[in-house]
Design a protein that fits this description.
Layout lengths: L8 H11 L7 H18 L3 H12 L15 H11 L6 H17 L12
Helix pairs in contact: 1-2, 1-3, 4-5
């Protein structure tokens, strides 16, 4: 896998957002965006998980035109960086799952055990 240059990330995010747009949107445009997205995925050997990560990362960027949310450091990115920095050789998807597991293990005890969604 070769991560695409960061200059290409906004384009990947825009294509991903457009290709996964709401049902009923112009199907021709969605299909065209998906075709271009799949071409970029093939060129850089990116999985769907990696493209989704790039799109989400780009949308949280405050300088992005896609969103107006502020990009504060968050626990997921911090743990992902630590896990990645260890130097283990594993697929990106495994790194994401490991990061989620670490956060789940740490955060799980912070919530009452019998909280139902209906109670919220």
């Amino acid at each position: 896998m070769t991560w695409p240059p960061e200059a290409l990330w906004p384009r990947l995010a825009a294509l991903w957002t457009h290709a996964n747009g709401p049902p009923g949107a112009n199907e021709g445009e969605r299909a065209n965006a998906l075709m271009h997205l799949k071409g970029l995925q093939k060129d850089f050997e990116l999985t769907d998980c990696q493209v989704a990560y790039i799109a989400e990362y780009q949308m949280l960027d405050p300088s992005s035109r896609v969103t107006k949310r502020e990009r504060a450091e968050n626990a997921f990115e911090v743990v992902l960086g630590v896990v990645d920095g260890v130097g283990l050789v594993m697929p990106f998807e495994h790194t994401v799952v490991d990061t989620a597991w670490v956060l789940h293990t740490y955060v799980f005890s912070q919530f009452p055990p019998h909280t139902a969604i209906a109670d919220l």
